[in-house]
């Protein structure tokens, strides 16, 4: 679905934004998992894994393993130990298994598209299923179409995650400097507030009310100020 260019682009983005490349990969995997659940119309928890070198991607449905039916709180997200051992004999309670398909109930009238599928649609996947059965829908179904949808969704969420990482990086850099003097340059004025360039990437704000009346600054002037909040 993807190729090595994806991996290269992620690494380039991480370098450009000076953030942890693994954080960017994780953000994209989360975005694709969200897009996959919408595309396949399921409430089952999903996970995507991107190969850090090749850029190839795999999708899985994740099931938490519980002791028995009495402990199942969410049938979409949990399996009993007996169910799980049929797929993975070594699994234990508290563990998780990965499935390469989603499961839906076969019905004539769909009331919940997240858990049900019409009989004639299910029979396109498995010709022998009947009403009341369960059908397994492979996660490779219409992969190319999903790839286009996922790319758009991932782009939006990835941008958000990158912005969050940038804000966190700024916070970590300056949170320990509260109460200290910091050098900067006057970058511009906005409605009387002074915007200060601190390191070429981060801006500080000196409100009009906290500016010295005895001093006048112009754009480009060097300034020292105390950090009072981050």
Give structural notes:
With 230 residues, this protein is of the alpha+beta class. It has 3 domains: 4-91 and 139-168, 2-Layer Sandwich (N Utilization Substance Protein A, Chain:P, domain 4); 101-138, no CATH class; 178-226, Nucleic acid-binding proteins (OB fold (Dihydrolipoamide Acetyltransferase, E2P)), CATH 2.40.50.140. It has 5 helices and 11 strands, in the order ααβββαβββαβαββββ. Strands 1, 2, 3 and 4 form a 4-stranded mixed β-sheet that branches. A 4-stranded antiparallel β-sheet has the order 10-9-8-11, with no helix packed on it. Strands 6-5-7 form a 3-stranded mixed β-sheet. The two termini are 41 Å apart. The model has no long low-confidence stretch (mean pLDDT 87).
Strand content: 25-35%
Query: What's the order of the H and E elements?
Result: HHEEEHEEEHEHEEEE
By DSSP, the count of extended strands is 11
State the end-to-end CA separation: 41 Å
Sheet/helix structural class: alpha+beta
The residue fraction in helices comes out at 25-40%
CATH class term of the largest domain:
Alpha Beta
Main β-sheet description: 4 strands, mixed
